[in-house]
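To: structure desk
From: M.T.
Subject: fold request, one chain
Message: Could you run this one when you get a chance? Sequence is below, nothing fancy, just the single chain.
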Amino acid sequence: MSNPFTYLTNGIPSIAPAAGISIGVTNSGAADGNGYNLLGNPFCSPIDWTTFQAANPSLGGTFGLRQEDGSWHYYAAGSIPMGQGFMVIASGAATINFKENQKTAIDASMLRPEKAVVEVSDEPNAITFVLSNDSNNWSSPTTILFGNNYAKTYKFGNDMPFNSDITEGASKFYTASPDGYNLSVYSLPDNEAVQTVPLVAVAQV
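Reply: Done. C-alpha cells follow.
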C-alpha cells in the first residue's frame, strides 16, 4: 500500500468508463450536408483523430472545423483540442465512443489549428479553389485530390459532401460527381491526362 499523499488540482480528474462516452450520430440523407454531425470533444484533453476515427468506422476519414472565413475546412489527421466542436460525416445511424486511448499529449490551437493537424488542402496532389465576392471576405474552399486509389463516383471516407454555409451572404462553391453528389472534397483518379471537373458557384448577394 502506498503512503498517503496530498494531490492538488484545479479541476476534477475525469476518466471515461471502459465502454467510453457514447454519442449517437445519424445520416440525414439531404442533398447538401448529407450525413454531417456536429460533435464536441468531451475530454479535458486533446484526442487523436486517427485513433478516434479507427475506433469508429462509421465516420468518414476527415473532420471539419469552422473557420473565421465563414466556411468549413477539412482535416485528415491531427489532434482535436479539449472541448472543441468538430464536424464529422456518418455513413448511417450509429453510436460512436470517445475512449481513454484516444487521448493525446499533442495539442493544437482551438478553432484555428497551426500545428498537429493536416488540412486536406495541404495533401500532396491536391488543388484548392476558393470563391469569394466583393461584398464580404467569406470564402468557400473546394479541394480536389488526385491519387491512384480514387474513383470518379462518390466514395464515403474519401470524399466530403458540400455542407452549406449558414452565414448570410456567403457564396456557395462546390464540385459535382457524376453520380449526383455536391462535394467540398473530391478525390479523383490520376490515371487520365485530362480531367474534366465541374465547379458550381452560387452567389448569395
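Reply (cont.): The chain has a mean pLDDT of 83. Let me know if you need anything else for the meeting.
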